[in-house]
Amino acid sequence: MFPVTKEYIESQYIKNKVPIRLSNKLQEEIIEKANKVLNLYNHGMKNIVFPNIDKILEQLIKMRKE
């Protein structure tokens, strides 16, 4: 799990020539769980995720300002 912008998404996932979409319920569940992990991370549990979220987020914010 890490921050991402649309420019990093290459294409939609397609199976048997049909675009695959997540249900609204699954989207909400993923967002809720991601927010819980980020909350733990922001409250000191830095070993809960392995990518350097701070550095990635800093770069994305910098890119957004440009």
**What is the mean pLDDT?**
84
SSE pattern, N- to C-terminal: EEHH
Low-pLDDT sequence parts:
none
User: What characterizes the major β-sheet?
Assistant: 2 strands, antiparallel
Tally of separate domains? 1
What does this structure look like?
The protein contains two helices and two strands. It is mainly alpha-helical and 66 residues long. The chain has a two-stranded antiparallel ribbon with strand order 1-2. A hairpin with a 2-residue loop joins strand 1 and strand 2.
Topology readout:
Layout: E1 14-15, E2 18-19, H1 24-42, H2 53-65
Antiparallel strand pairs: 1-2
Short description:
By secondary structure, this protein is mainly alpha-helical. The chain has 2 helices and 2 strands, in the order ββαα.
List keywords for this structure.
single chain, 66 residues, mainly alpha, two-stranded antiparallel ribbon, 2 helices, 48% helix, 6% strand, extended
